Automatic annotation (TrEMBL):
Native source species: Cladocopium goreaui
TM annotation in the entry: 37-58, 70-94, 167-184, 204-225, 237-258, 278-301
Keyword Membrane: yes
GO molecular function: pyrimidine nucleotide-sugar transmembrane transporter activity
Cellular component terms per the entry's GO annotation: Golgi membrane
UniProt keyword annotations, A-Z: Membrane, Transmembrane, Transmembrane helix
Keyword Membrane in record: yes
Matching NCBIfam families: nst
PANTHER family xref list: NUCLEOTIDE-SUGAR TRANSMEMBRANE TRANSPORTER
Protein's recorded name: UDP-N-acetylglucosamine transporter ROCK1 (CMP-sialic acid transporter 5) (CMP-SA-Tr 5) (CMP-Sia-Tr 5) (Protein REPRESSOR OF CYTOKININ DEFICIENCY 1)
Localisation per UniProt entry: Membrane
InterPro entries assigned to the protein according to its UniProt record, in alphabetical order: Nuc_sug_transpt
Membrane-topology descriptor: Multi-pass membrane protein
Lineage: Eukaryota, Sar, Alveolata, Dinophyceae, Suessiales
Pfam families xref list: Nuc_sug_transp
Length: 367
């Protein structure tokens, strides 16, 4: 879930730093508390861009290296949701005064939360499960490139639901993105052994297909989230991020309980539900879970307080980082198809963020 930051976002960080005793220049604190992030981060926004590129580029590698083999996707998502709740709650509580918290409590209703966070969180839960399944069966570069095609889905759904137009150059960029997805999804035609054919089928059906299904659903979740935030004036995005994570965890736990009931005999012989799901976990698993939770916050900061062009270049830098890290650290060799798809995605990302649609000029009425 991309947690966009509102007026209580970065100022909340500044107040949090001051209350926890961390040093921060007084002029930055005053400017952050006044909500002027564009001025207070005149030099610091570059750090967010670098962190976003690093998180986007290295997240698949961290997940494959540090998370246990065969880890349940739902358990990974539950852990990530718990981390998001902790981060959002810390910023919300330490970055808001008592009156602001009381106002949030008065304005919150269960019905409103169910309507505006329940459905998106159910889609997010399913989308996250598909992403985790696909990520374990794909190399890091293929996963990141396929996942980046969510721009195509988001553009289509946001146009249909929110009426957001695309410029001619953006349409061309989306076409390049579609070509890159075809390159990565196409099966090789060369003859292979039965074992290689089985591995190739797993790569396609358990890797490519789940990620593409998640990409298609991400456009709908993005549109629903934007509509919820836009339609609720004054709605705190940190609170909304917590709601999405809590509702998503609820749906994941329900799925786990159903699975546990179906496999009760097997799990009881293997040591119980908790021991089975967290088998092989260690302290090092905290790193990929934390970076996954922080990724949405970084995207929100960059999206709101920088601009789409810089965000696009940060994602391109992340793709380059994924390419280099896979070539150096993973056993999967880079092919010409990988490199061509990476170039197409990079060019598409830059074009789509650099050439937004021009605002339509209203014809002036003559008297």
């Amino acid at each position: 879930m991309v947690a966009e930051v509102d007026a209580a976002g970065w100022p909340g960080f500044a107040i949090l730093l001051r209350r926890t005793g961390m040093k921060m220049p007084s002029w930055k604190i005053r400017m952050a508390e006044s909500g002027s992030l564009l001025r207070s981060m005149a030099q610091g926004h570059f750090v967010c861009l670098v962190l976003l590129a690093a998180q986007f580029g290295l997240q698949p590698l961290l997940a494959k290296r540090l998370l246990p083999k065969g880890a349940f996707a739902s358990v990974i998502l539950l852990s990530s949701n718990a981390m998001k709740i902790l981060i959002s709650a810390a910023v919300l509580l330490l970055g808001s005064n008592r009156e602001q918290l009381k106002e949030l409590a008065r304005s919150w209703t269960f019905r409103d939360s169910t309507l505006k966070a329940g459905l998106p969180s159910a889609l997010f839960a399913g989308q996250g499960w598909l992403i985790q399944v696909g990520q374990t069966h794909l190399d890091s570069l293929t996963f990141n490139l396929l996942n980046q095609t969510k721009t195509l889905s988001a553009a289509l759904i946001c146009y249909l639901m929110l009426g957001r137009r695309q410029s001619l150059m953006q349409c061309f960029a989306l076409f390049l993105l579609f070509l890159s997805a075809l390159l990565l999804a196409k099966k090789k035609a060369t003859p292979v052994t039965p074992m290689e054919d089985l591995a190739r089928d797993d790569h396609f059906w358990l890797g490519v297909v789940p990620v593409l299904c998640a990409v298609l659903s991400s456009g709908l979740t993005a549109a629903l989230t934007q509509r919820a935030l836009k339609g609720s004036e004054g709605r705190n995005s940190w609170l909304y991020s917590m709601e999405i994570s809590i509702w998503g965890s609820f749906f994941l736990i329900c799925g786990q309980l159903i699975q546990h009931a179906a496999l009760e005999g097997t799990l009881s012989r293997e040591g119980g539900w908790l021991a089975t799901n967290f088998q092989g976990w260690s302290a090092q698993c905290i790193l990929p879970i934390s970076t996954q939770a922080c990724g949405g916050i970084l995207v929100g900061l960059v999206t709101k307080y920088s601009d789409a062009v810089k965000k696009g270049f940060a994602l391109v830098a992340g793709i380059v980082l994924t390419t280099v890290s896979q070539a150096m650290l993973e056993d999967t060799p880079l092919t010409s198809r990988h490199l061509l798809a990476a170039v197409l995605v990079a060019v598409s990302t830059v074009l789509h963020s650099t050439f937004p649609p021009q605002p339509q000029l209203q014809k002036s009425k003559t008297i």
